[in-house]
Structures are given as structure tokens and as C-alpha cells.
Amino acid sequence: MDIGKRMKELRVLYGLTQQELADRAELTKGFISQLERNQNTPSISTLLDIIQCLGTTPAEFFANDEPEQIVFKSQDYFKKTDDENNKIIEWLVPNAQKDIMEPVRLTLKPGGRSEIYLPHSGEEFGYVLKGTIKLIYGRRSITVKSGESFYFNSSKKHHVENISSKNAVILWITTPPSF
């Protein structure tokens, strides 16, 4: 871990100048500058003082908040085929059900349909990549074509159906995860 870089990130995030951090930690501005440029190494007690002055804990300071993986390729996708409903669901981000949103690619064969989702708190966005679908939202029935998108609050019963004779492919993002 680059301690100097992390110190600077937090200092800037909290809107502190090097002088303000130095004053809080009872150090010199020059010493803070050297630490941020990795030209000097603080003692453990000095580092703990700086971490406290930055309003964080050692655990938070040293935590690696970077996601392990941020780019996902087709071999990472999890795919489920549902022959009964003529559909294929591909989870584009593995384990996204534990996150705030869940993106899937839904392929509906002719006559295929999604599950019927009961009202719940959340929002949903879909983009029709290929084909034509019918979106049933509450009592409304709306045709959505390739290149068009939909967005709604999940407070009404809803689902989609493929109304064409060719496959329909939808990028569907839900929050919270519901697939």
C-alpha cells in the first residue's frame, strides 16, 4: 500500500491543507509533504496520530476498497436456461445479488417471458438490444423496440414478453437485485 498516497487522498477528501493536517497532528507542513511523496516514513505512533487526525481508523485507512474485479468478460457470466418460459438469463456481474444493483442480459425466445414480479421497493431499467417486447407494468401494456429503453419504479406488478417471431435481448438492471 502507498501510505503517502492514501494520506493525501484522505486529506484532500476532507478538504484539509497540508498545513491544517500538520497543525492537527503537531507536525510540520514539510514533514507531511515528505510523507505524501513517500520521501520519509513515519513511526507507527506518528502514523496512528495522522490517521486519527484524518478522522478515520487504522482498519479503514488500510482497507482495500478497490473491487477485486471491475471488468467482466463472457466467461465470467453465469447463465441459466429456462426452457419452460423460453428464456435465458445471463448474470453479467458474478455475485451482483449482494450489491445495490444487478445487471442481467435476458434473452427471450419467441413466446418467451420473464417472471412476473410483484410490487417491491426499487427501480428498474431495461434497454432492448434486439427484437421487440411487451412490457406489462401494472395495468399498462407497452411495446418496446430495439434501441428503446424503459425505466420504472418497481411498485407495481410487472414483467416482459417477447411478442415477435425472433429472439429479443434485453439488458435489464434492477435495484435492489431481484433476478
Automatic annotation (TrEMBL):
Pfam families: Cupin_2, HTH_3. SMART domains: HTH_XRE (SM00530). The keyword Acetylation does not apply. The keyword DNA-binding applies. Keywords: DNA-binding. One of its GO terms (cellular component) is cytosol. InterPro entries: Cro/C1-type_HTH (IPR001387), Cupin_2 (IPR013096), Lambda_DNA-bd_dom_sf (IPR010982), RmlC-like_jellyroll (IPR014710), RmlC_Cupin_sf (IPR011051), TransReg_Diox_bact_type (IPR050807). One of its GO terms (molecular function) is DNA-binding transcription factor activity. Residues 7-61 form the HTH cro/C1-type domain. This is Transcriptional regulator, XRE family with cupin sensor.
